[in-house]
Amino acid sequence: MGLNPPRESVVDRFLRYVRIDTQSKEDQTVVPSTSTQWTLANLLAAELEQLGARDIRTSEFCMVYAAIPSNLPADQRVTPIGFISHVDTSPAVTGANVNPIIHANYQGGDIVLPCDPSQVITVAQNPVLAEMLGDDIITTDGTTLLGSDDKAGIATIMTMIDILGQNPEIPHGPIAIGFTADEEVGIGIEKFDVSSFGAEFAYTVDGGTLGEISDETWSARTATVTFLGKSTHPGTAKDVMVNAIYALADYVLQIPRDMLPETTEGRVGFVHPYIGTADVETSSVKILLRDFDIAGLEAKEELLRELATSTERKFPGVSVRVEVKENYKNMKEVLKHHPQLVENALEAARRAGLAPFMMPIRGGTDGSKLTFRGLPCPNIFTGGHNFHSKLEFNSRRGLEKTTETLVHLVQIFAER
Ligand SMILES: [Zn+2]
Predict the structure, then answer these.
(1) Whole-model pTM?
(2) Most buried of the four, 47, 59, 192, 268, by CB within 10 Å?
(3) pLDDT tens digit string along 217-228?
(4) For residue 310, how far is its CA from the centre of ligand 1 (angstroms)?
(5) Cα–Cα distance list, 378 to 251, 258, 375 (Å)
(6) Which residues are catalytic?
(7) Helix (H) or strand (E) holding 222
(8) How far is the CA of 315 from the centre of ligand 1 (A)?
(9) How far is the CA of 159 from the centre of ligand 1 (A)?
(10) For 63-77, what is each residue's pLDDT tens digit?
């Protein structure tokens, strides 16, 4: 872009952050779920200070907030926008002793990870590699995850701030920064302070493939289906016992095979029985319901209720209860009223030389919760791939193009 370079390159910054273990932990009641997340949060607060950010606040919940003031004339009001990424990494794969490996000037072919040759990033499973010739690919050594999810988001946001500091001629309005804890275990975002954040809109920088922008997530509910039978001593059970386990087993087998996560993709939703208990007196199963459309979600809930009724008929003496809770809603319901958020992100990616595209997320983001709490929040790519796995990777170009996109994005808000 013909700009002064940042004081530290985005790659160097990324390599420093991924070496810090910030793995979060499931089934905890306090945020942060692991004290290790503080190491990166405190470091980021100190580095934000060095980069000239203002109003740096670290909450008791390991959330780091900061502000970059507008550099426009006082009479020029620009919508304050925010950038958000999470410090924690997935509990699915260890994040201790991450040893990032740079495969400089990649020339094609499968990438065997040096410390565990059974871990191979194959061209067959990662067709994006064909577009990465000459790039410097950053992988793990095969024994941990990389933590590009979401230290790529953090490194690119921090480098954007660095670049804005080195190039004061780049016009921008007020920018709010939020680094969150415990995104991966779903409990952190409740502690995010929307009211004092300082932005009307924000972007989570937590996506994948370069150019991929998302303003849709699942609408998500969880059903708990409980089967009540009648237990008695099996020695004297004849004509008395009603074994709820059979009703449970029959119920889950009635779920259509073409409606499961293992048989669906793209925009098609699913139902997913994922955990339960089998017991004569009381059996139960938890079932995820996911769809991009509320009507589709309603239909899935209705199906589960119909199956409950037919199961009761088939198993006399068993009563079946269906309880449904909402987890989160498709952020598109709100974001469709703010089309400029996506338009500006697409334009920023184009100015960075990318071919941006929209991709619905078959999951939720911090943004899906924030959007319904008054902070509309689409998601932007980071260049990362194979999240939550030892095969996770990103690249120099991935990090640099994401950073460039963010710098363009703040300028676009200032222009429009
Ligand atoms: Zn993430």
Answers:
(1) 0.89
(2) 192
(3) 999 999 999 999
(4) 41
(5) 38, 30, 10
(6) 88, 183
(7) strand 219-228
(8) 44
(9) 18
(10) 999 999 999 999 999
